[in-house]
UniProtKB/TrEMBL annotation:
GO cellular component, one term: cytosol
Organism lineage: Bacteria, Bacillati, Bacillota, Clostridia, Eubacteriales
Protein's UniProt name: Putative glutamine amidotransferasec
InterPro entries: Class_I_gatase-like, Peptidase_C26, PuuD-like
Glycosyltransferase recorded as keyword: yes
Organism: Clostridium puniceum
SUPFAM superfamilies reported for this sequence: Class I glutamine amidotransferase-like
Amino acid sequence: MKPIIGLALSNRVKSKKIYSVINNDYIKAVQKAGGIPILIPFSDNIENIKEYTNKLQGIIFTGGEDISPLFYNEEPRKEVQCIIEERDRFELELFKEVYEKKIPILGICRGLQLINIALGGNLYQDINSQIPNSYGHAPKYTLRSNLYHSVKIEKGSKLFDIFKTEDLKVNSFHHQSIKELGKNLKITANSNDGIVEAIESVDEKFLVAVQWHPENLVEKHGEFLKVFEALINIAKQNII
């Protein structure tokens, strides 16, 4: 049997209608890695969360909008232009549920930031204005399938076990980053300017999160499928 992997959705407004959306690369990566994706739209009905988590063997917290700084007790800087409070609230509760149930978790970009906030950490709301001498992390005109900068992976981490290297080139589409690390987390990769690029749980839970977008790299740079395969291999152990 193949494990069922949840994918958190966002919303888009088009032609005066609201659509639940996800980049199809997430779906293709999960399928290629051997999982069955199930899409999870956010809802005002938090009770729906238990129904979803009862069916999941793994989950991916996906990319998207900035998380409201109010959830980590800060007022928004002017660079914070797009938030969806309902998504933030739903996914923070969803994370709490899957974390307590020890369901394997992969966070991608916003997903990494959500995990950090859920566990008591906070963010630099805007890298360029808050971190002196930082490099580029959010290019406007670069294809999402292109490598953009380097990261250094810590030996002995789950991420090192996945990629089997300390040095990795990644894509990059974020203007925020971790400031204070959440509880029971450790940093497992940084860019050369010191920006946190990956975190994971300090214990044996499979909780791995990266700041880049591996789902967009799978077709052109096949090694990035490994992070999805790692999630799904662990998730298979949850199949009853």
